[in-house]
Design goal:
Order of helices and strands: HHHHEEEEHHHEEEHE
Oligomer: single chain
Shape: elongated
Radius of gyration: 21 Å
Number of helices: 8
Distance between the termini: 29 Å
Largest sheet: 4 strands, antiparallel
Low-confidence stretches: 1-32
Strand content: 25-35%
Number of strands: 8
Mean pLDDT: 82
Structural class: alpha+beta
Strand order of the largest sheet: 1-2-3-4
Helix content: 25-40%
């Protein structure tokens, strides 16, 4: 399952940040304009490995820390990253590192939405004296799938309906999953979506059971969904 805080970062660990954020490119800076003086407040980037360098960039982009991301990225990279999303989300996991002609290519996978991102970083000896803006290429492939709130809720009800505890726990918070399992371990296949409405950052999706006539209301956090969080369905009402 997805976890929000992980100590350390290796080839199979997930990048994690704790601050909430909203996925939107509106108002995102188009270029890497952060000055060298502004970057000097950060830990030195002169001699760290290309993989660690890319990790820092992806963390900063993921959390929406644009000033920090601009220190590590070139103008071309910021345009690519911010054009895809700002912030980038919290579930990017490094999956491979390979080198070619003075560049190390570091690839990440988004465990929440799918899709890969490859960052090209200049090797230590080729970086500018201050070490900044060494990430000079970025490419997305199989871009993250943007489930909307209704699709997310439908996926949850289907998973619960077939008794799939793994995916029920993926789409819902532990509290919401427990509420569903309290209703039934296996919800069945007779739920029909009858209405959708939004209020205060949440989309409420209502279903009716065609057999029992009971209703089920799933509340999906629009913020949680937009940031690529795994457990976006956080409230359940059954009546």
């Amino acid at each position: 399952m997805m976890i929000r805080r992980i100590i350390g970062l290796g080839g199979t660990t997930a990048l994690a940040v704790s601050a909430p954020f909203v996925l939107t490119a509106a108002g995102a800076p188009a270029t890497a304009t952060t000055t060298t003086a502004s970057c000097s407040r950060l830990a030195s980037a002169t001699n760290i490995s290309a993989a660690a360098y890319a990790d820092r960039l992806v963390r900063a982009w993921g959390s929406g820390a644009t000033a920090t991301a601009n220190c590590y990225a070139s103008t071309a990279v910021t345009r690519t990253l911010y054009g895809q999303a700002l912030p980038g989300g919290i579930h990017w996991r490094r999956v491979s590192t390979e080198g070619a002609a003075g560049t190390i290519y570091v690839t990440y996978h988004d465990d929440a939405r799918g899709g890969n991102l490859t960052i090209g970083v200049q090797n230590v000896g080729l970086r500018a004296a201050n070490g900044w803006h060494a990430a000079y290429t970025a490419k997305f492939s199989g871009e993250p799938q943007a489930w909307n709130a209704v699709q997310w809720s439908d996926n949850l009800v289907r998973a619960w309906g077939r008794g799939d505890t793994k995916w029920t726990a993926y789409y819902a918070t532990p509290t919401a999953a427990a509420q569903l399992h309290k209703v039934a371990a296996k919800g069945g296949a007779h739920w029909t979506r009858i209405s959708t409405e939004g209020a205060a950052g949440t989309t409420y999706v209502t279903y009716r059971n065609d057999v029992t006539k009971h209703t089920l209301v799933i509340g999906v956090s629009n913020i949680g969904l937009s940031q690529g969080d795994a457990h976006a369905a956080y409230t359940v009402q059954y009546r």
